[in-house]
Each structure stands twice: as C-alpha cells, then as structure tokens.
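Sample entry (539 residues):
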Amino acid sequence: MAQFINKREDVVTEAIDGLLAISGGSLARLDGYPHIRVVLRNDWDKSKVALVSGGGAGHEPAHAGFVGAGMLTAAVCGDVFASPSVDAVLAGILAVTGPAGCLLIVKNYTGDRLNFGLAAERARAFGLNVSMVIIGDDVALPELPQARGVAGTLFVHKIAGALAEAGVDLETVTAAARRVAAGSKSIGMSLDTCTVPGSPKEDRIPAHMAELGLGIHGEAGVEQVDFIDARLAMEAAVSKLAAAMEDRSYVALINNLGGTSTLEMSVLAHELITSSIGARISHIVGPASMMTSLDMHGFSVSVYPADEAEIAALSAPVSMAAWPGVSTVKPVIVNMLPDGLTPIAPLSSEHRETREFIVKCCRILVAAEEDLNALDAKSGDGDTGSTLAGAARALINAIDRLPLSDHTQLYRAIGQELSQTMGGSSGVLLAIFFAAAGDAASSGLPMRDALKAGLARMQEIGGARLGDRTMVDALSPALDALGDGVRSAALAAREGANLTATLLKANAGRAAYINARQLEGHVDPGAEAVARLFEHLAA
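Predicted structure, serialized as tokens:
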C-alpha cells in the first residue's frame, strides 16, 4: 500500500520535525536524533511537577501532540510501535525535572514498563524525585492480570496535567493519576488492520467482519464478529465496558483509531449516546483521533467515572489542537422550520392503480441500487443508486399521504416529496420536473405532454441537453416515443442510455470532471436508471 513517506527509517524524525515546525515555537526537541527523540515544552522552567509520557510512534497525535501547558511536559518517541530506549527516556526526565519532581505516565506494555522503569531508577540515582504510574485500561481480556494501556491513558494525561499546571505537589499528582488509571476502562473495534510503514499489510480481518478488542499496535483482538452496521458494532463494544462499569455517571472518550472518516465517527458518537450505557454518559471527549493505530479503520471507547473536580480538569482549556475538549451530553434540539418552508400537505386520496404503479416504479429503483452505484463509481461519486433508492423508499413511505386520484396534484406532491428527501442536484432537478409537469397538467395537457413540459423546464434550469451524457439522453427519447406505447419508450430509453457509453465527454454532472478514458464504455448511471425503469414497466 502506497504511503506518503520517504524512507522508513526517517518517518518518525521527519514527522516530529513537521510537528515542531508548525508549533509556533511552543515546542522543542532534544538533540540526539535519531536515537533520542524527545519533544518538550519550550517554555518550561522546571518550577512545577513535570509529566513525561511516550512510547512507540504510530499513535499520533499521542504522545507528542499532547505536549504543552496543561498536559504533558515532554513526550519520548520510539520507532513505530516500539518503545523508546532507556537513554531516550532518561534524557527526557533529566531535561524537564526540577525540584518539584516528575511523574512518568506509562502504558502497560513490557517494553515501555522496562525502559521507563529503568530510566526512573537511573534518574533517582541522580537525586531526582520521580514517580511512575502504569495504565492498563483495556477490558478486552478481563481475566488478564496485566491489561494493556490504550486510549484511557489520555484521561490521565489531562487530569494529572491540569493538577500539575495548577502547582500541585508530586505526591498529589501521582495519587490522582493512579486513581484515574485504575478507574479508566477502554475497548476497541476495527474493520481492518493497520499498515506499518515499509511493511506488507496483514489481511487478518475478512470482509463483513469486525475485530473486537484488538490492540493499538495491531495485535489480534479477543474475537471476530459479524459486522452488520454501526449500531450493532457499538453495542458489541459497550457490552464489554458495561461489565466493568458501576451505576453512576461517566465521561466517555471516543477515539478514532486512524482510518475512520469523520462522518463515521459522528455516527458512532450517536450510537454510543443511544446505546445500553448511554444513559450513564454525562460528558464526551471527541470524537477525534487521539490515540491512533496508524491507519486502522476502527474506533475505541474509553470511560471514566469523573467527579466534578475531574470534569473541571478535563474541561480546562489547553492550546494543543490534538485535545478536542469535553462536551456535555444534551438532548438533540429541534427548531421549527422558518415560515414559508413548512410544506403544505395535499389532501390524500386513494386510487389503487396509481398506488400500484408508483410502488412498482419505486421498487424497480430500489432493486437497481447496487448496480447503479457501481456504474456511478466509474464516472462519478458512486451514489446515484443510493440517491434514487432513497427517494424511492421515501415515496413508498409517503404513499398514504399522496393525492393518488388527482394526477395534477400528484405530480406536485411527488416534486415536493423529492425536494425534501432526495439529496444532490438530481433531487432538485427531479423536483423541478414533477412540479412543472403538475403545472402543465393543470392547464389541461395530457400525461405525455405534461411530462415533456416538465423535462423542458428541468433542462432549462439544469442546462443539460441531448448528448451531454445525463439522464436526459434516455428520458427525452423515451417521452418522445411514449405516444407509441411503453414498449417503444423502453426501446428508445435503452438506445439513448447505451449511446452515453460512446460519449467521451460529459457536459453536465459529476462526470464532467472525468477524463475520456474513464468514461468510455460506461453508460451514464442516470440514463441507465431511466432505461431500466421503462424496461421493467414494459415487461
């Protein structure tokens, strides 16, 4: 898999220098590249307790992204998924520790425990006051005596960081860090493994499966489960957390493991809030990429039963962009539509033949969803099928509200429904088509002429013409031939749709941005939808 890196051996140092260059001078690093990679606050005067954390790279923005006032004083960075050396950790401790002492925050992995632990011993031999807290928040394997440290570590960074910034002594900061570490619980889930720079990708997780309880270094999870949707995925994750939670309020941290889109993370936030533990979640950190696993397409949820003082510590503002802040969970607020936009519903009426015809058309489009999406992926953004199927489902759901016995009002009602439920330019254009057809029908024009008037208005506003490689290339000839029957219209629609596969330039729609080589041989998906609709009606 291609990645935006140069040499594998330089990826960590170059990433650190990139972070430092855009820090505005707030961060610095120690000399000693590439063996010693320590990022530290550039304004540090050693007057307060220092917080040092770190570990292998690949979890960005952790840990260097959380260095700054109110969180970490220094981060010690190892190679990708590899603990930093004892000398690197010791260098970080010596660089930031003053009379107030230093707290090491360490995730529970053997390499980190050993290297940070030995560095602490050597620092104490220098006469420094150093304490250490080990984070083991992963609940994937509850019977394991040494749980892994994962994203719950960030609760410790933020709460201990706020205390240290306030000038609290080392003993108090350490006690708070240990309390938060003991109370933090986390679980992760992913649809795919991560890609380690310079190494082949491990295809461990089959299609349509998700791995529950995997580690932040790509370690195999506790089990692979069927993946159905976001709701069931979140429920599988929180069921593990629920076993470790009490009946009290919690702060939840929703972490992107690196390769999950912002849209997906917002859906997962919704599912967490409405999940079986949602009633116990009072505040949320994220969703955001905080403790990642390179490009892993997954998420993790961490929970901690914070009291008021700890919520205040989590909410204390910091300058680091990597910390997303804390939000209070509130019910969704819904405001009324402005005057003039609230739709006036037409009087519904029943007409069995019209109902059956509309439902049949809608089911044809729903059945074609995947095929049309695949076709659109070759010349657009891959959603034509979903857009049309979504509108079709909405019309089926609205069928009892439609004026089925009054075709003039029916055209207008369909246009109104599509304008509300169908996204993108196609929704607007079809809404115009049906609204104009309704206007034409009200003046006494028969159905075919009314539909042609709708097409003319749609072309006038949308700008598409025959030969522009759009649905017009199938719809226009179909309506022209409709006077000779539905079968003639179907043949004309198919001929028009097939013609679009020979058109090497689109003058409208998303395909206008695609080069000729990608368009050649592929039917326009909108034209294909029209052709299939008429073909099924003629069958």
